[in-house]
Amino acid sequence: MSTVHANGSANAGARRRPLEGVRVIDMSRLAPGPYCTMMLADLGAEVIVVGGGRAGNPVATFSRGKHFIKLDLKCAAGQAALRRLCEHADVFVESFRPGVAERLGAGYAALKEINPKLVYCSLTGYGQDGVLATAAGHDISYLAVTGILGAIGPNDGPPSAPLNLLADFAAGSFVAALGIVTALFDRSRTGEGQYLDAAMIDGCLSLMAMHWPVWQTHVLPARGGGLLGGGAPYYGCYACADGRYVSLGALEPQFFAQLWTSLIGSEVPDHMDIGLWPEIRETFERAFKEKTRDQWSAHFAGTDACVMPVLTPDEVWSHPHIAHRHPNASGESVPVIPRFGHTSFDPPAIDTTDRSDEILAAAGLTPEQIALASPASERDRIPSRSWPPRFKLPD
């Protein structure tokens, strides 16, 4: 693996990050790919984002720890510059529809020829083959076609998607990151890279592993029903006196018993008797309306009743437990995950400065070649020689 000379972190020398030495060329767009490579950068990988096309990186926090360059991949000089970078890369990530990367000179077959050790990841919605391979889509599309959307939401209204967390990030970014680090581990034994077809629909199908077998049973009889789908009165949310909500997750008998006795105080009913569910729900609805959300949070603190306040996003970072684990985190700077040891790594810095001259020169391109490889609007620019030689590719 290549040697990293800059990872964008203010305290880079304090602790070695586990992916230091891994160089990633990132040509992904939108959200899943950039979030995947942000996680790699958080853990020490040197991520070089190749821009210059129509789409950019829309979420500022996804840029942290990365280095940015611009290339015109519709011209031969831009494609040659990209290949030069890939000669010394460990990972290549793209998120185009099938066939686009090949037309830009960045397909797996072409890059494998110059770097057989390259781990190449295509992160797409529908994958590289099948009737939907070239179709447009977003998170909600992938949830719809994989059955997830048909299983979540209330039974008296339309299905409801949980933001774009499931397909884009859980089934996309995380699955791709797992595939990448697994392929790097395998390369350490075989000496060869490989191609990864990371499809968000595949991730969605896998995420449903627990739920396929229980669909249309008493556990998950239909959308909005069953133990986890909204039917059980002890697994859901209730409005409080102030209009805010608490969540209940008292599935096990011992947890339900603590919830019931602490809230109601009378003899504990059989919470698995579906016939009692309407009465239990009505009892909970009346009881939780008697106090505010925060009063109930204090009431259940220290118990195993599985009652938690439903926090709005702006409240999360001041919650005592979150603040304890991630004292420096915020909505603009989410934590580096997972922990290695007992403390988290600090998030790398965000610096979106165009480093095309620096990085391409380190790869061996002349100022004239750099100018030719740049987007058409920048080809008259004379590359700067004033930058410090922070990047150094191996011989």
What does this structure look like?
By secondary structure, the chain is an alpha/beta fold. The protein has two domains: 23-207 and 347-378, 3-Layer(aba) Sandwich (Rossmann fold), CATH 3.40.50.10540; 226-239 and 245-309, formyl-coa transferase, domain 3 (2-Layer Sandwich), CATH 3.30.1540.10. It contains 14 helices and nine strands. It has helices at 32-42, 76-86, 100-103, 108-114, 139-145, 165-190, 200-207, 226-229, 253-263, 277-288, 293-300, 320-325, 356-362, 367-373; strands at 23-27, 46-51, 66-70, 91-94, 119-124, 195-199, 235-239, 245-249, 307-309. The strands form two sheets. A six-stranded parallel beta sheet has the order 3-2-1-4-5-6, with helices on both faces. A three-stranded antiparallel beta sheet has the order 7-8-9. Strand 7 and strand 8 form a beta hairpin. The model is unreliable at 1-13 and 385-389 (pLDDT under 50).
Q: What is this structure's SSE topology?
A:
Layout lengths: L22 E5 L4 H11 L3 E6 L14 E5 L5 H11 L4 E4 L5 H4 L4 H7 L4 E6 L14 H7 L19 H26 L4 E5 H8 L18 H4 L5 E5 L5 E5 L3 H11 L13 H12 L4 H8 L6 E3 L10 H6 L30 H7 L4 H7 L22
Parallel strand pairs: 1-2, 1-4, 2-3, 4-5, 5-6
Antiparallel strand pairs: 7-8, 8-9
